Amino acid sequence: MKQSIFNRYYEALLDTDRDQAIALLSGALDNGATPEEIVFEVVTPAIERMSRDLTKDLATTLSQHFIAAQISEEAIEMLLPLFSVAPEIRGSVVIGTSAGDFHGLGKKIVRGCLRAKMFTVVDLGVNVPAERFVDQAVTLGASIIAISAMMVHTALGADGALKVRQLLQQRGLESRIKILVGGAPFRFDQNLYRSVAADAWAENGIEATRVITELIKEVAPQ
Amino acid sequence: MNSMERIGLLMEGKLPDRVPVICNLLEQGAAELGMSLEEYYSRGEHVAEAQLRMQRKYGYDNLWGFFYVARDAEMLGCRKIIFAKDGPPNVGAMTIRSPADIEALTVPEDVGATEPFQELRNCIRILKAEQGGRCPVLGSVVASFSLPPMLMGMDKWLQLLLTGPRSLCRELLEKCSDFCIRHIRALRQAGVDMIAYSNPVASATFLTLPQFRELALPWIRREFEAVGTEGMVYFNGGGVITSQIGLIREQTGVGAFYLNPLDDIVEAKRIVDGKALVAGVINDIKLISWDNAAIEKDVARIMAAGAPGGGFLFGTLVMPLQIPEEKIKVMLEAAFRHGRYPNNATLPAR
Predict the structure, then answer these.
(1) Which candidate in B69, B91, B208 is best for mutational testing of the A interface (most A CBs within 10 A)?
(2) DSSP symbol at B69
(3) Nearest C-alpha in B relative to A190
(4) Of B342, B335, B292, nearest to B312 (Cα)?
(5) Residue range B1-58, pLDDT digits in tens
(6) A58 and chain B: CB distance < 8 Å anywhere?
(7) Could you give the CA distance from residue A215 to residue A211 in angstroms, rounded to a whole number?
(8) Could you tell me how many CB contacts below 8 A there are between chain A and chain B?
(9) Chain B residues whose beta carbon lies within 8 Å of the beta carbon of residue A195
């Protein structure tokens, strides 16, 4: 039953058919599937499958990523309160766009995908000063600061990831907090993340979940 | 041979002396005149003066009668633009925040009469007076399908597009399409020789081919049916378009495609089969980090892929301010050299 729902749900994501995807999840719940089964056997695996398909060069588009992230987030919000036991959280991430950058799509996709994979995500919005990234990461005990930048000057600028790195160094936080960057400039130059002193970059929101999962393993226990 | 003659020959299906080179230097103009970006973009004379100086300095084949993309949103009522010190201006306040704002959105009857167009017109007038007939003056419009992100934000636009309500989405696209059509007419009236029709959100980076066919293509067709294809260039705007070129060509008849750096030049040329021009584009963000040898190598690769058989231009995409002037020169010199056609070379009759 779950496999059939999964297949139809994944198809709905690829068709960017939000209503059909949500209807499938609601229908499964009505038919006796537990919230845990729906999340761990349908919603989360769908994000993982999209990630695997990407690595196999089965290109998916930004509109598909957007819908997948949005539905995942909606589903998690709907189903988590119904869990019999609180799920194990895989890590905490603060996310936002670089100072001076007002393009919020990429981070929104990353946020939805991460929530589907049981990460706690705090979205700081757009045009986020470096100090706020670091302060919030410390306050929330986050291991990852994820910075999205859609323009070259906000990706490379002194007030973006470079400044976050500087602050982490100054405060002795580099072993506890890692920096992930993403956005168009990093896609066009895949070494650019090194120029901004980030620990890693992700090509898209789906890929970000995989990279963050790896990155979090490098973080020293707090 | 001047730039206009070079591109003219290309459009007639003949070989010019070399592959024409389109270089998108925009914000660089402010540094050229030693002023802030805000001051620079406040007057059409500034932009025209810098465009003329940069074209003289580097010797490429175009002048931009264009300020920045967010100018389109200003013509549609956006009142706040944020000027960075080191990058293009951005929309600072969304014009559409609710469904009621879509209903209330008014498209100016005469886009050319809007206040943000006046300085643009001045710029184009000066460029034409100085270089008209010798170097093509290019304008740019954002296609209807890619305009809503600047009015309401990209996520809100994708949400409306993909999940509806459909009637509201249609109403917004109709207004954006009317604006795009009137904008093209205003630019032509102002005198531009060619217009880049920029449509990133319709690209294959955003949409699957069936989505493109269903959601975006009808609006592209609507706009080209209204304004014709003369001087129009289908511009990727930041997304890949190779897989869409055949459909766009078939449905609109547009005669030039400006690719994305990640597009396949050889495949694009195969698809258009000599019936449209193709601009192959360098990954100019890499110009920041590449050394001279790497720049030379990539220019040679692009020319080898596109130049044989003619119908080809070399182009840049975003040209960030962070690219050193020296590297711009290296790229252009390599493009002039690698794009040269042998004397008296002709194309076989088709």
Answers:
(1) B208
(2) T
(3) B286
(4) B335
(5) 999 999 999 999 999 999 999 999 999 999 999 999 999 999 999 999 999 999 999 9
(6) no
(7) 6
(8) 83
(9) 289
Contact yes or no for B92 and A102 at CB 8 A: yes
pLDDT score at A221: 66
pLDDT digits (tens, 9 = 90+) for B115-172: 999 999 999 999 999 999 999 999 999 999 999 999 999 999 999 999 999 999 999 9
- The B residues from 171 to 200 touching A (CB cutoff 8 Å) are none
Question: What's the one-letter identity of residue A35?
Answer: P
The sheet with strand A119-123 has its strands ordered as A119-123, A91-97, A144-148, A178-182, A200-202
- In chain A the domains, ranked by start, together with CATH numbers, are 2-82 (1.10.1240), 91-217 (3.40.50.280)
The set of long-range contacts for A83-86, using a CB threshold of 8 Å and a minimum separation of 24, is: A83/A35, A83/A36, A83/A39, A84/A34, A84/A36
Q: What is the ipTM of this complex?
A: 0.89
What pLDDT shows up at residue A170? 98
Q: Which residues pair with A148 in a beta bridge?
A: A97, A182
| pLDDT attached to residue A206 | 82
Residue A2 has pLDDT above 80, yes or no: no
Residue in A62, A109, A187, A196 to test binding to B, most B beta-carbons within 10 Å = A62
List of domains in chain B: 3-338 (3.20.20.210)
The two tokens of residue A169 are 């160094």
Dump pLDDT digits (tens) for B272-295: 999 999 999 999 999 999 999 999
Q: Which residues on B lie below 8 Å from A192 (Cβ)?
A: 285, 289
> What percentage of chain B reaches a pLDDT higher than 70?
98
Asked if A122 and A136 touch (Cβ cutoff 8 Å), the reply is: yes
AA identity, residue A1: M
Beta strands in B171-320 (DSSP E): 194-198, 232-235, 256-258, 277-281, 312-315
Confidence of residue B343 (pLDDT cuts 50, 70, 90): confident
- Whole-number Å distance between alpha carbons of B145 and B152: 13
Beta bridge partners of A97: A148
Length of chain B: 350
Residue B80: DSSP 8-state: -
- List beta partners, residue B22: B315
First to last CA, chain A: 41
- Residue A52 predicted with pLDDT over 80: no
- Comparing CA positions, the residue from A135, A138, A143 lying closest to residue A213 is A143
| Minimum distance, in Å, between the CA of residue A153 and any CA atom of chain B | 6
